[in-house]
Input
Amino acid sequence: MNNKTMNSLKKAIFDNKVIVMFVILCAACIIISGTSVSYIATEVFTRFGRNTCLVLALIIPCMAGLGMNFGIVVGAIAAQIAVFFVVHWGFTGINGLLLCVLMCTPMALFFGWLLGKMFNATKGAEMIAGLVLGFFADGLYRLFVLYILGGVIPFDDPNLLPRGFGLRNAFDLTGSLKYALDDISFATVLMVLGAILVVVAFVNFLYGKKVGQEMSVKEFVKKLITGVVVIVASVVIKVVLGLNVLFGGTRLILTDVALFGGIGAIAYAVIQFVLKRPKKGEKLFGNLIKIAVVGALLLVGTMIPAVREVYQSVRIAACTYGIIVFFCMFNNWLTNTRLGQNMRTVGQNRAVATSAGIDVDKTRIIATCISTVLAAWGQLIFLQNLGTFNTVQQQSNVGLYAVAAILVGGATVQKASNKHAVVGVILFHTLFVVAPLAATKLAGDSAISEYIRMFISYGVIAVSLAMHAWKSVKPISGERKEAEGRTTWGIFPCGSGKG
Amino acid sequence: MTKEKFKKAIDVIGLPRLIVFCFFIAIVLTAYFNDIDVPSYFSSTIKYWGMWAVLVLAMIPTIKCGIGPNFGVSLGIVCGLLGTLLAIEFHITDVVNGMLPGFGPWASMGFAIIISIATAWLVGVGYGRVLNMVKGSEMTVTTYIGYSIIYLSCILWFRAPFGAPEITWPLGGKGVRNMIAMDGSFGYLLNDAWGFYIGGEKGIFIPTGLVLFVLGMCAIVHLYFKSKTGLAIQAVGANPNFAKASGIDADKMRIKGVAMSTILAAIGIVVYTQGFGNLQAYTAPLQMGFICVASILIGGATTTKASIIHVIIGAFLYQGLIIFTPPVSNKLLAGTDISDTMRQIIQNGVILYALAKAKGGSSNE
Output
């Protein structure tokens, strides 16, 4: 028994070796730098809200067998072009941001379609193609914002184009789009969520028959009530004074979130346990215990002074985090649809997918389009939080950081999930915050930190790509020699240039 | 019928090469009709062609052994920079000049090249082993290894315990400075050797030493691929399974190819540095890998086929374009320098075209 536990522990560590390595690295950097945990927590939560959506955009193309989509740069470009025009027209706040979304989505779809075509032309080398295409698009974008805008297309705005052509280098969003999303209060988010639930329930009930997803009246009423309850809750938060102070503002304090989240999680677990009475050993039972334990830990945290202090210093932008949850849910939802299943089949084996009647190329293009649109929205969230950005260069490292983050979270080129994205963003950005501090402490100079950051990003990608490729080559050269001969000769009768 | 022939001809020449070539001719003609000093720009083109040719030559061994263009030449570049820095650090020029006047720079450059070759061979063998583990996704892996190694070298340069006053920061402190003047060692050595003008002082300058060196390197590489080992490497690239069947150790040949590519890159950066007159440390070589890949592709190579002539043509066209664009765009677009953006678009466009033409060029299905 003991031996077995040891073995499973060993296996767990080995399976998550990348995560383990980075946790150790982060811990070492935190100890060396001697930074307060409150500071790190504040920074990491801000960066988490800012970056996670971009990372979540990588999951769907990965499922469709396209590997890590370095081409999300084109999505970011679409978002930035939309931002220029919206700021030029003078729209501000959430209206401006919604207009950005409206503008950049068709652009991102078009770019995504082109990207997908490129990926289809370079099957087997999508990652390098995505990378080079990112640079290429970067060049075209620079041509557009520096020379064509104002130079060829008339665009009169002395604020944005001080020389008459070519956008100014630093783009300040203060007073226009900065915090457009972050400044939406929790109560409003709840109200919108409730409204969406009600609408979805109605649509499903009325039109579900046509798509083959029929809904019973009972289910409809249940969903309707959930939506109404959420709306009522939002109204209650706005009206009741105590709750108004806690949840009415634009930023939630982590202490409150932990407190109510913990109570909520435990209550949910208990209610589910009582209502469903799952038996021991059942999967649901284990999940409920996990939820309850997490809830309890959150609660206990609020009572320990040191942890409470960290909790108190962190502010969470309700709407942005809500959208992250929405992105995760979207990814999960898509995986379970027919389209998602097709993508998975295409990702596993294109030949099988073709013989099953799936249009491989089309599926891959759809996956790329979705990813590009998500990336464009992610970049909008990123920009509104950052508040100021470099016109020419802001998009160029988007793919690099996103891919590095998800790989740190334990994803491979073939398998990536929401969990990998979330864990990866937390670890990668913790390291991003503390590694330069630690380096400064060790080397006594801060100029080195930029090199260390870039080295970490590129190094992570190089190592994990190499490790992945190694894993996928090894079994062939080992026990399945015969199979190797057959497959190689089967697919490439005259041999190919590459080994 | 003629249309088909035309299409076929374009296919053989390659669309991007045709576009780049026509573009180059157009730019040179525009320069000529706009009173731009064409001969002097031609002189720089030849100079930069010589400086880049050896670096571009480093693409040949990896393409021939089936790995594809080596995006990771940065490894060799870092080795070459190390060799050059050591030559400056030990004041080889002054020491040898003391014994044999006039031979100092040559000895210094020889020393730099020997050190570079030694380190590049070691690094290249290790790199080759890594690439043998990642068969099928070499291009992606080499790109990222190349990038990360440059930033690793930045960290190294930042802390490296060099003592020569030319290398360290003028205001004291550790580490290598951004730009190191090569005047005291072997700057412009090959460029100036036996150089002469065609058509008087205002004509085209031919850096004979540099041209001879480049042609010599090309000849060495050409002869190497005619030798037994070279043929074995090409056999592995053409068909690994046939090579295996005829008793060639494919993995070993691939390692040899990668090591040779790394060595050529190391020599290439030494030549580049002497021609540039300054040693550029830190992130300056970051995009060199991409430039080399783009150059050889413009010259007519594909991800699976390349020859010396592709190197010579490609390096010339690419550098010519880079050198002629700024003055022309300055003249035509009233003081704007569009050349860097153009370079980015052309360079990556050419690589993309080659990738698409090769259908990804990779067999990891």
Notes: The two ends of chain A are 45 Å apart (CA to CA).
